[in-house]
Automatic annotation (TrEMBL):
Alphabetical keyword list: Membrane, Transmembrane, Transmembrane helix
Residue ranges occupied by any Receptor ligand binding region domain in the UniProt entry: 7-141
Cellular-component GO terms for this entry: membrane
The keyword Transferase appears for this protein: no
A Pfam family assignment: ANF_receptor
Main location: membrane
Record protein name field: Receptor ligand binding region domain-containing protein
InterPro entries xref list: ANF_lig-bd_rcpt, Peripla_BP_I
Localization, UniProt: Membrane
Species this chain originates from: Cirrhinus mrigala
Superkingdom of this protein's organism: Eukaryota
Alphabetical list of Gene3D superfamilies matching this protein: 3.40.50.2300
Amino acid sequence: MGASIEQQINAMFKVMEEYNWGNFVVITSLYPGYETFVDYIRSFTDTSYFLWELQDVLSFEMSVGANDIRTRRLLQQVDSQVYLVYCSHEEAQYLFRMASDVGLLGPGYIWVVPSLAVGNPEVSPPDSFPVGVISIITDRWRKTLRQRVREGVAVIVKGVHSFHKYRGFIPEGHMDCNSPVKSFANNSLF
């Protein structure tokens, strides 16, 4: 169990709002979920009271040898101080190397990434990561797999218990919560 990408994006925007960083660029790899990331950002900025300005969205392959010249050219075309990034840990290393080559790292540039791009926070970040990169990291890495599974099962059991309390039955495994109640109600909770 961990924070969803939507929750992480909400936290990113809270930080950006706090510092009045209203103009930004979104950079994504083609990592699964990148379209959802961009869609959520677009809907968030469209419905927010804060005057956000999404200057550009760049989505491209971020792997060594993919097309370094094209990547550098794309990065040179953006003109922003704030960058929201969605990619894997390995792809982030590549992106930050390319961004360094075109002068987009250092004072005056803010890079905000989800926990996916950071990887294991107990390990020192790679040299390609800029000093001061901002990331939304949950405390899930502090817990063992056993603790996380226990919490996940507890959430499900609490949900089932609440459903039983509210509806008076627990659906069979092959049914859904909207199915009508059968003549015999399952009153036992395991």
